[in-house]
Every structure is written in C-alpha cells, then in structure tokens.
Amino acid sequence: MLILALMGVACAPKETHLFFMETTDTHGSYVEFANDAAVIRQMRNKLGDHLILLDNGDNLQGSPYQYCSNHDEEHPNLVSACLNFFPYDVIGVGNHDVEAGRTVFDRVYSEVEMPVVCANVIDEATGKPYWNPYVVLDRDGFKIAVLGLLTPYVVTWVPERLRPGLRFEQAESAAAYWVKHIRETEHPDLMVGLFHSGWKPQEQNLPEDAPLGRENSTQWIAEHVPGLDLIFYGHDHQSRADKVINIEGDTVYVLNSGCRGASLAEAEVTLTQGKRPVIRVGLKPTSDLEDDPDFDALLQPYLDRAEAYQNEEVAVLPVKISPEEVFKGSCLWVDEIHRCQLDVVESRGMHADISLAAPLSRRFELEPGMLTVADFFKWYPFENSLAVVEMTGRDVKAYLEYSYEIRGTIYNFDGAAGIRYQIDGNKPYGERVSISCMADGKPFEFDKTYCVVMNSYRSMGGGNHFVNGCGWAQDNIASHRLWTSEEDLRTLFIEWARAKGTLDDQPLNNWKVTAS
What we know:
Blueprint: H1 2-11, E1 15-23, H2 34-47, E2 51-55, H3 64-70, H4 78-85, E3 90-91, H5 95-99, H6 102-111, E4 121-123, E5 128-129, E6 134-139, E7 142-150, E8 166-168, H7 171-185, E9 190-196, H8 218-224, E10 230-233, E11 240-245, E12 251-256, E13 263-272, E14 278-285, H9 293-310, E15 313-317, H10 332-347, E16 354-357, E17 369-372, H11 373-379, E18 386-392, H12 393-405, E19 415-417, E20 419-424, E21 433-438, E22 449-455, H13 456-459, H14 465-470, E23 481-484, H15 489-500, E24 511-515
Parallel strand pairs: 1-2, 2-3, 7-9, 9-10, 10-12, 16-22, 20-24
Antiparallel strand pairs: 1-13, 4-5, 4-8, 6-7, 11-12, 13-14, 15-17, 16-19, 18-22, 18-23, 20-21
Helix pairs in contact: 3-9, 4-9, 10-15
C-alpha cells in the first residue's frame, strides 16, 4: 500500500501558486505611492519570489522632485531607486519615460536591477529591439514569459531630438509576431503581456494598414492575438480588472492599476502541469493604508534636494482658479496659459493669431497668494515644448468641434484665445461651434491661414484633433508646423509668470458654452 501511495504522489501533477502585482503611471508621484509600498513589502516578505512585481512605465515625469532627480547626475535617479527598493521583477517603458529624453532614460534603465521589456521600440543602428522584447522567469520549474509593448504614438507626442535613433513600430503586429515566437521557442506555462497602451482605441475609421496602428491597442490585442493568458496594461489611467474571450475562444485576463498609486492590480495564478492556468484578478485600493517608513526614508533625500527648487516663489495669484471652470467657457486656469503662449511667441520675434490650450489635469485647484514652482507642476504637469502651426479658419472650427466632442477627457478639451466664439451643446457635432470674429473684432475667415500656438504634444497630433477633427493625415501634420521651442513649456510658463509678478484676475471672456 505504501508503494502505491508513493507512486500516487509521484504521478500527481506538478503545481505552483503565484501572485502578480502591477503598478503603472506613477508620474513621479512617489510620495503618494508610499502606502502602496507597505502592501508590496508585506507581500514580498510573505511570498518571496512567488510574488512577481511588474511596473508598466510613465514614471519619469510629473512631480518637481522627479524633475530635479532627472537633472541630477550625482545620485541614482528616484525611479531606479524606488524600483530597486522592493525590488520589481520586470518593468516596462511608458511614453512619458521617453519624453524625459534618451540621456535620462538610458541612465535610469542602466541603474535598475531588473529587466526592461519593450518589443516594438527598435534601435535603428541594429534593427533589433532596443530593450529586451521579453523575458522568461522561472518559478518552481514553470516558465513565465513577460512581453513588453509601448504605444507607438510616442512619435506623435515626443520630438525626435528626445528619442534619437529609435523607431517605434505598431503594437498589434509586434504582439502577433512575438507571442507566436515566444510560444514556439520558449513554450511558456504562462504568457503575460506588459503593455503601456490603453484599453480601447479612440481612432475613428482606422485603416488596417495604418503605420502606427491604434494608440490604445490592449483590447484589440487581447481579443485578436491568441496565446496571451494575462495582460497588465497602463497609459489611459483607467483601473480595470476584467477578462475577454479571444478569437480562439480562450479567456484572457486584463488588469490596469490606474495611476499614481491609487490601487494595485493583482492576479492570483495557479499553474498545473498539463493544464491551462487558473487565474483570478482584482484591484486593491491603497489610499487608506499606512505609509511604509523605510520607503519614506528612501524618498526623503530626494525631497530634500528638490525642496529649494519647488519652493521658489514665482508670482502672486489674485484669485482662486479651477480647471473645472473650462466646461462653462473661458476660465483663468487656461487663459493664463493662452496669455503666456501668445506672449512667448511674440518675444521670439514671431506672431500667433490664435492660441489653443487645455487644462492638463483636474486634480488640483490653486488658492490666491504667492505661487511656488510646485504649484506650476500642478498647473502644467508635462514637459511639452511650445509650437506654432499653420491652420485655416476652417481647420480651427473643425478642431474646436472635435475638442468639445471629447471634452470628457479634460486634457484634450482645448479652448481657444484670439477669437470670439460660442458652443451650443444641443446642436449636432459639426454645428456646435460658432465663431463670430477675431478677438480684436476683425473678421474670422474660413479660407484664411492663421498662425496658431499650442503645445508640442498637440502640434504633433496628440489627442487626434488634427486627424479626427481636421481630417489631416498623420504623416502630413509636420508640414504644418512652423516652429518648436527648445525649452519646455512649463519652464517658459514659470519665467513668464515670474516676469509678470502678479497674474491676471479676470479671464479673457472670449468664449462660452451656451448649452450642454
């Protein structure tokens, strides 16, 4: 009987249990991440290497102390220090990591102690992926493959000078190639995607042969690329724990932890030899948890080094401002950006007839009083440059129609200065925007070409205002661009405000929403 029992044990299927956690889109806000750190550390101490910790990028931009760390070559970067602290097992690349510039991201990724995966960013010198396309982890004899992808729309947002020598290929075709390759050569027990690409595509009437594919391709890949078991994704800041059925009838689990440490994406996976993985997914909110004191101690030197910079006084704000006011019409939150953009262009010996800008976040309001550099990181969180683009009056009208149509995403809801107009939300798309004249009372002409100032993200096609709104071809957008600043717009904004001393207390009052 004993021999039979032992034989039964020997024949029992081999099995292991793994726990995955994903973070994404931290945007340098590691102070807010300290409560996540406590959970991650507890799980790491409890599970050891049975916890597989993944990060999905967009960490190198978004806070004043991260900005300072990016320009500090004497100390390890804050991002690499935080990733090494736990440590993470595999990390991906986000578009805002690329936006930090190749000098910065090369240094950071050389400092990290874990593999960086991204299959569709190609080194033009070698024709091969610049980072590892994938890695294979071994846990108890089971093979876990992790494939990385990044939305190629980076090329429509980040100037080439910040990403020299790199080519960004379509995520959908890269997924199809690499999943098949990994399945055939590595024979993994679990196939995991680590994608910095949002869930649902925004592109309208996208041709199948579009060079960049979809900006947000995760849903499409989950449904159309067989072989994936579990996908962690980021970029769109929308938390999700879900599953889809792919074209072969298999279940694919999908997770997104959101942004700035608001939650952790979790997956429990049971692997049994000869069987499909058993997966359960969920989200763990972390906002009400205690900070990890050791993580706080790691952060403190970075905060100390950035303190003088972020506390520099810039200008007096006479009244309270809020980005939410943009949904009613002209508001100071956006109008000071307009005033800055128009003034900076004039100071460079150029002229802009019209300015386009949006609130880039709805997370903050600013109270009256002396503003510091840290306040300007809330007001203008991204390191975009400034750009001037040629547009016809007809293009401007179409652009604003599209902007109102997608207003739910506040950072894509551009308003204009330099013209007077109204938006009637009760009218159908295409008929909502009525432009009466230029701001100085001169006629606004549909067939006239205007010089329009905006941020570089928008000037390169970010938000799809040109493609979906104006009907421009993506590869033709660059031909409309007349000028781009070398400095980032937030720096220009700070310098403009400092020179002004006291900011305006009244909006431009050049447009309003009459019905919504």
